[in-house]
């Protein structure tokens, strides 16, 4: 059982620093930040040796099925051992003046472990289900479908908090897949834990569960998980699943751990973790968090109505609000899920940067820069195309990862830059669909703020401003999640009383960085109307599901 600890007291000089570590899809990055003003003094990136495990398990000839995506925990540890010391060296600050560390992770990235936290893949590396399932592991879609159908039929009270459907990306669907496809692995798994919490366990020696991942990915609402009765109806062997989550109730010590508040102190850096990182033993370790949600602090966007779109391989849209509403197809609304005291909403697009990378890797021999240059010269609609941004399935608002991408209007005159531009536009249309769904549900979006790697493409940003018909603010950091984690570390170390106070001092964004052009916005309204027609036509899944089934049968 882990109770919240009092903030640490450090006898250090007036210069105090924190480290933020962002565990992404392909790499981990660390940044050293000054507590007083958020200045980023040094950073480093470690590319994962195993990257995304999609085809064959490392060191074996065991092949994976369609829509699998795994990661290696060793890659995460290597980020601590390699990137963090490199970032500290680059910053040139005395190690003894580093007072805390915060981390964030992709989600839902989840793994089975023993009771002491040992990943099962370390013990049985030839068993696919023993490995961590990355956020974009979509092979559990049939299990998510059953979870949703039964919850709707039973009228489960938690289902509307997730827009009427939970995702195949989340904890329960992935765990049900393990139970039904590898029951021996499920039986050995004493813990089913988010990577965001697992890494904190490795740093502190203390097991904890953060309220963010538990709420959004673990279907925890109003103080409880789905009932044992409901889980048993899904599968009798699933009845006791919640016991693998080391359950607790917010504010009360129940079971083995307590759900930990964001910005809280998870524990202190152990001697082993200090040796990995070069940070002093006993430094504050902030409660774990999700990459998207922690970025709100980095952009100083922790007030109601500030929607932050973290745009990278995928896009996650998160927004604090003082209103509770049911938004169709949202990924969830969680009390205290972004900052304590407010409701936190999440929506998203499963593939964005991944779509552009897929096209360039397979068809765009000119590369991103040249295709962008050519696409930018076109008038809106000149290519005669419209596309659906479902190449990784649809996270919001349809919540169906068995949907797939569609491009309409190609002719013998269609060029690579035409398709490239249509794909960019499709992701902007998907973002507009999300914003409109929130506002129609009574949750206003007052400011749209962009973070993530795709900020580097100015043409893409202008397309978004034109399609959304609203100004875009942009985060003033290339390492938004890592900076956000560092801000949380400053709160956990007791330097600021709240996330809001720390974000105001250490976060940063540029307002109205991109302003819509009225003529282009009008033209995009016409294209968006066609996107909506295409969205509704293919959204029932009949054709796209049939094609996927045919593909899976042929591959098998």
UniProtKB/TrEMBL annotation:
Q: What is its EC number?
A: 2.7.1.16
Keywords from the UniProt entry: Arabinose catabolism, ATP-binding, Carbohydrate metabolism, Kinase, Nucleotide-binding, Transferase
- Domain Carbohydrate kinase FGGY C-terminal as annotated: residue spans: 308-493
Q: Which InterPro entries match?
A: ATPase_NBD, Carb_kinase_FGGY, FGGY_C, FGGY_N, Ribulokinase
Q: Name one GO biological process term.
A: L-arabinose catabolic process to D-xylulose 5-phosphate
This entry's Gene Ontology molecular function terms read:
ATP binding; D-ribulokinase activity; ribulokinase activity
Which EC class heads this enzyme's classification?
A: transferase
Q: Which Pfam families match?
A: FGGY_C, FGGY_N
Q: Which residues cross the membrane?
A: none
Family, according to the entry, reads as follows: Belongs to the ribulokinase family.
What name does this protein carry? Ribulokinase
């Amino acid at each position: 059982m882990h109770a919240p600890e009092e903030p640490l007291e450090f006898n250090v000089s007036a210069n105090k620093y924190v480290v933020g570590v962002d565990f992404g899809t392909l790499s981990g990055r660390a940044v050293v930040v000054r507590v007083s003003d958020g200045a980023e003094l040094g950073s480093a990136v470690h590319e994962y040796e195993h990257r995304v495990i999609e085809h064959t398990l490392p060191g074996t000839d065991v092949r994976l099925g369609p829509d699998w995506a795994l990661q290696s925990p060793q890659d995460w540890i290597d980020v601590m051992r390699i990137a963090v010391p490199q970032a500290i060296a680059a910053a040139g600050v005395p190690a003894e003046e580093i007072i805390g560390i915060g981390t964030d992770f992709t989600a839902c990235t989840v793994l089975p472990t023993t009771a002491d936290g040992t990943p099962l893949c370390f013990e049985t590396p030839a068993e696919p289900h023993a490995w961590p399932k990355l956020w974009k592991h979509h092979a559990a879609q049939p299990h998510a479908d059953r979870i949703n159908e039964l919850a709707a039929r039973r009228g489960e009270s938690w289902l509307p908090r997730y827009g009427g459907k939970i995702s195949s990306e989340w904890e329960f669907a992935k765990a049900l897949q393990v139970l039904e496809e590898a029951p021996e692995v499920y039986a050995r798994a004493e813990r089913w834990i988010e990577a965001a919490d697992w890494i904190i366990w490795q740093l502190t020696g203390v097991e904890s569960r953060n309220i963010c991942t538990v709420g959004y990915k673990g279907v925890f609402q109003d103080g409880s998980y789905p009932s044992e009765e409901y889980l048993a109806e899904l599968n009798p062997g699933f009845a006791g699943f919640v016991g693998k989550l080391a359950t607790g109730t917010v504010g009360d010590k129940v079971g083995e751990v307590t759900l930990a508040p964001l910005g809280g102190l998870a524990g202190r850096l152990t001697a082993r973790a200090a040796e990995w990182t070069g940070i002093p033993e006993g430094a504050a370790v902030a409660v774990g968090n999700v990459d998207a949600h922690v970025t709100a602090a980095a952009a100083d966007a922790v007030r109601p109505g500030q929607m932050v779109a973290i745009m990278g391989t995928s896009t996650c849209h998160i927004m604090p609000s003082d209103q509770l509403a049911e938004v169709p197809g949202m990924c969830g609304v969680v009390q205290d899920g972004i900052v304590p005291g407010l409701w936190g909403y999440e929506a998203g697009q499963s593939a964005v940067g991944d779509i552009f990378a897929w096209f360039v890797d397979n068809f765009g021999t000119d590369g991103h820069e040249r295709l962008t240059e050519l696409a930018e010269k076109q008038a809106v609609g000149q290519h005669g195309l419209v596309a659906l941004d479902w190449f990784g399935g649809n996270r919001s608002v349809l919540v169906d990862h068995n949907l797939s991408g569609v491009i309409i209007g190609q002719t013998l005159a269609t060029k690579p830059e035409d398709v490239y531009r249509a794909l960019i536009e499709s992701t902007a249309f998907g973002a507009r669909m999300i914003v409109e769904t929130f506002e129609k549900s009574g949750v206003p979006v007052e400011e749209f703020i962009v973070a993530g790697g795709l900020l580097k493409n100015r043409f893409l940003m202008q397309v978004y401003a034109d399609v959304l018909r609203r100004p875009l603010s942009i985060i003033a950091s290339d390492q938004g999640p890592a900076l956000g984690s560092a801000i949380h570390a400053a709160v956990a170390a007791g330097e600021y009383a709240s996330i809001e106070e720390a974000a105001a001092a250490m976060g940063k964004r540029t307002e109205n960085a991109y302003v819509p052009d009225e003529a282009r916005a009008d033209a995009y309204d016409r294209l968006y109307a066609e996107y909506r027609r295409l969205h509704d036509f293919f959204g029932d899944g009949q054709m796209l599901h049939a094609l996927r089934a045919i593909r899976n049968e042929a591959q098998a």
